[in-house]
Amino acid sequence: MGRDYVDVAMVTVAVILEISVDSKKVVPKSGFWLWIFGSMILTAFYKTIFTTEVILPYKRTPLWRHIYDLEEHGFQFFLPLTPDKPLFYELYSNGTPLNNFLAFEFGSDIYELALYEGDFPRLLGYAKVANAFVAGDHENGWKSRDDVKPIWRELHYKRPTHLYSNLSRCEDKLAFVDKKGYVKDIIPFLNDNKDGVVFMEGADPDFLLQQHGIQINSSPRKNFVLDRVKFLMVSGIYKRWEEWFRRIRPNKLFPYYANWTRPTVEALEKLDFRSKFVTTLRIWGICCGFCVAVGIIELMYEQCHYLKKVVTYASRIMTENG
Prior knowledge:
With 322 residues, this protein is mainly alpha-helical.
């Protein structure tokens, strides 16, 4: 009867740890945990290595919804300098700090947003972030104080190594702000690393949102230009042109100056093979600790029971001799 309980316990542990076991076989009690340890090496770690094609990467979602959520949590923002200004690149290369916020790619747009005086909640949040940006612009002196430290730092597209080395410091709260289309091109470049650092695109596409269009004046007769524009847009030719020019003339961002065109680190190299094995070892350690604790309790119980027998036997002898 007792043997059945042991078999049931062993099968239960084997099912939880995903270990193959035949309940009809007899395993000595002394080798129970050794058997589990050996089974983990032969099954858990084995399956993790040879079934990597079915291991899905952990899906990450940003913890923020808007950029003003980051500002409230004390984030520091990296902003790209205007790339077509040789003076800015020279100052950046020399390590000279640029305290003029207008030196950045969209500095003027930030200043315009800081002037917002409406009552729309989201735009008020954007205006709050814009005012936090310009508050550190001590050179222009508009809405700035000497005791306020800038929440932004500068980066330049021509120095791609500075991007990853700064943003990969997970202990700091850092973010990179750029145009939405540029960020989509930069994210794959940043995620092409062996350190396991994952970069995510923000979930707030409306910050500094601008829409561009083509204005064509109406005419009483048939408008040839309007008809051709409609044809280009509906037929998809314009989209193909955009894709073609994006391929032959890519934006000169960090990947361009790093001569990066596609990921060099394979997806298989980014998988964490130790996660399941370490978790299984942790469970095994907890079970061993529990087993040791139960063994100590049983040993103490046996010692107490033995001491009780000795005391009872001694008292009986004293009673008989008395």
